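FAQ: What does a multi-protein file look like?

Like this. Sequence, then tokens, then the next protein.
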Amino acid sequence: MKTSDDLKSLLQRIDHKGYPAYKDTRGSYRFDGYVLNIDHVQGDPFASPSKLSAVIPGAKAGFPPSLFDLPHKRTALQDHLTRLFGRKLESYNFKAKGSGKSGLISVSRCGQEILSRTALSIHPSTGDLSVHFEVGFPARGRTIAAFELIKILFDFLPECIHSSFYYNRLNSRVIKDVADLAEDQQYIREQLPKLGLCAFVADGSILPRESGVSSRPMKKAVPFHSPESLKITLDLPHHGPLAGMGIPRGITLIVGGGYHGKSTLLKALELGVYNHIKNDGREYVITDNTAVKLRAEDGRSIKNTDISLFINNLPNGKDTSSFSTEDASGSTSQAANVVESMEAGTSLFLIDEDTSATNFMIRDELMQRVVHRNHEPITPFIEQVQGLYEDHGISSIIVAGSSGAYFQVADHILQMDRYVPKEITSFAKEKAKAFPSVTLPDEKPAKPSFRRIIRSHPSFAKNGRNKLKTLGKDAFQINKETVDLRYAEQLCDSEQTAALGYALLYAQLHLIDGQKDLCQIVGELMQMIETKGLASILDCGYVKSNLAEPRRQEIFAAFNRYRNL
């Protein structure tokens, strides 16, 4: 292996040469306490920055194995160290001068959620750290500014690495707090099914966010306080006793006036599938890992999905047991979202009436008397919600502000009053007796079929010349096809969206054979990610630094919204 002196000599030799001469720097170099890898060199100073990585041996990094011996603790430590490294890099960003992206030094920018990322990995047995980041190699015009890169690689970077990834230079108390919080959060997740709960919201949680474009907690917000009837106390391994609201499995209805916090609570539950950092305000809001936020998606494509649980006897005679359309209506898209989520293995639906199709959610008694059931193709969700729980084990948490139809089928009813929840189940049930009850179908519907065989699409090139572009958090593009994920509302990071693009591309090139169904393909992808790491879905000679692990449910969502499926 070459040394850092070899790299410095090489850079001095190519100074003032044409920018392509930077390609000669690719390789591995031994620095003091770590190995620096130059994995990919950008083509010119205005192109995407060069990809670098550093490997710090576990013996040098010195982190006690107790901090990363379990997956949830390892993910939390990786997340924390990535944040530390990112803050250090920011202080040196663009201090090396030049044209284009010269002097840029960056790593993943983590949000409030704790995600497993390709930016940093810790080997579970050796403790070796591998960190992947980007550097804009400096230039003057399009000629090499080697001494500016020497400043980055020999002055800035060593300080950032040594002050971020060496245990003896870090605050051990803060590091232990990260691991302790991860263990407490995991303990709550493990307790949910044992206690018959689908979610937990700790007293004192701050649910409102700073603004519509900021995920940080709102200052001076009303802290969450559980109603006594739903309050439980958990004895966490490190925090000790923690009281909060346990939402039982079954059907829970959240009602209340406008702007009183209904949707704020639901949003916190949506993102409770992820762990959150300390002082986020929602670090002890924990939701069933498989929970899916459902909504209507006018215009989305549907491919060979059995929506007969909700839609039958269409006037045009179209088969709804294997339904396809390029432009779904609100009710049809929401029906497909329900069935596809069942296929993905969810145990909890999260629904807000504001983003749902009205004719999918309810059909009141008066309408049933005027338009007979036999003349209505849609079986509304209210008629199936109890069966979904009793027959399929899928709970529902539903936000409603304008219709009381769900009072009769709900097991628990919460009213949000100025962000404070009150249980009103008995009161609401008593009032509901004065109104006609929901008429249920005479026969139980058949379980939807999930046998959807996936076939490869001819637009994918086997020679590696497929173009993949991430369009923020909301979409990615493969070749000429855009996959719209705006309404996969539990995606919290654009790096998850990027990972979904690579997962779909990998499946098209290596897993889809015209024999396997979607469940098998997603299962193989998840198995690869869990055993070999997220980087295993990449078909390139280096690890991309900008991927974050999505859930199984989001992988299903990406496949289901790909029109060329």
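And here is the next protein:
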Amino acid sequence: MKSSSDLRSMLKNIDRKGYPAYKGTYGIYDFGNYYLSIDHVQGDPFASPSKLSIEVKGKKAGFPAEFYNAKYKRIALCDHLTRLFYNALSKISFRAKGSGKSGLFSISKCGQEVLERTACTINPSNGDISIHFEAGFPANGRTVNGRELSKMLFDLLPSCAISSLFYKNIDQKALKSAIDLSEDQYNIRTKLDSMGLVAFIADGSILPRESGVSQRPMKHCVAFKSPDSYRVSFDLPHHGEITGMGIPKGITLIVGGGYHGKSTLLKALELGVYDHIKGDGREFVITDPTAMKIRAEDGRSITNTDISMFINNLPNGKDTISFCTEDASGSTSQAANVVEAIETGSSLFLIDEDTSATNFMIRDELMQRVILRDQEPITPFIERVRELYERYGISSIIVAGSCGSYFHPADHIIQMDQYMPKDITMIAKEAAKDFPIVSLPENKHPDPCFDRCFKAGNDLKKDRRIKVKTLGKDAFSINKETVDLRYVEQIVDSEQTAALSYALLYAKLHLMDGTKNLRQIIDELMKLIDTKGLAALLNCKYVNTNLAVVRKQEIMAAINRYRKL
């Protein structure tokens, strides 16, 4: 390890030399209060910024051990520190001058959700903190501007580190509030199952968002209030007693007129698999962590998936037990999405009729009389929804605004009226008596086959340099193959998309050996992440790109959309 004075001298010596001279700055430097590591230096001032990290020893950082003695607390602590460091960096970015990306400072920009990230980690055994960020090394044209980099690393950066990463210098009440909130959220999440619930929405929650492109809460809107029949309470360690609507296990139908908040409620439940920051309005919207949004997805690829539970006897005789296509229809894609969610162990499906294939969701009694069962290859979801719950323990929350056929199988029916939920189960069930019940298949369908095994990624192993690129939240590419994730709606951050790309790449290179099925492969990936952290997916000596945590449901979705399985 070198001293900070060594780095200062080096920058003075290489000033005005060719830009490659910056390569000599690799290494770890002792800045007294922390260690600065220059992990990767960009090739020129217009290339991707250099990768840097700071490590603060636990004794100097001084964060109380009770703030990181549980995983959910560590995630909340690191999220809070990342936000502080981001705010500090944003004030000094580009204050050093030069060509290209000279003077840039950047780190993960956290949204409304609290996610585990590689950007900031804490060692649970000693409290050591590591934070990873990017910096644009300054240049005049394509020559080193050592004086400006010295300004960045010695004048600007230390104040950010000191103000953000040391307990004595931050707003301790704000940090404790974030840790306490994480403990309350964890408390609710761990109690849902024992209380027979799949979700909880606290009274007073603000569900509508500011706009279609903003996840901040809408101002001056109706606060959520539970119907008396669904109200439950939790005694939380910090918040105290909290009340709200508990959605029971089983089949729940959300109905109501257009623009009355049905889809807004469902969207909040989709994202309730994540914790949210204080002030978001959805801090206490807590959903079963395995919940999966199911929708139609025209054009997606499907590889060797058993969709026979829903689609059989195709006119062309195509096999639906090991179904393959590169251009699925709406109903076929939704059937695959359901089966793949079952494969990952999901115990809650979230479905909105607006994003579903009509012929997958329902065939009414009149259509069944005209088009007989043996003439229709699709078994609609309404005929399987009760079986999914009773046989596999999978609950469903379904938004419906135009079809009342689901009144019959539903256990619970909630009407959204001007963003306020009302229990109309008894009224709807009584009205449904006057309408025919959709007939169900006579025989139970065999369990789906999940023995899909894929061979190693020999095509990738031959490449000396594999190019991985993240395209926002919507997609990623490995070399020239793009994986479309636009309709995997529970991805909330582009760093999750990056994590999915590296998870898929790791699986192809190291786990797909032709003997393990996809469930085993994904379980191994999750075990790797749990034991060694997200950075283990990078298979690199340093964090070359920041990643955010993903669930096994999204990993399954990404792998299944890769056309080169």
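Q: Is there any per-entry metadata?
A: Some entries carry free-text notes. For the entry above: The longest strand covers residues 240-248.
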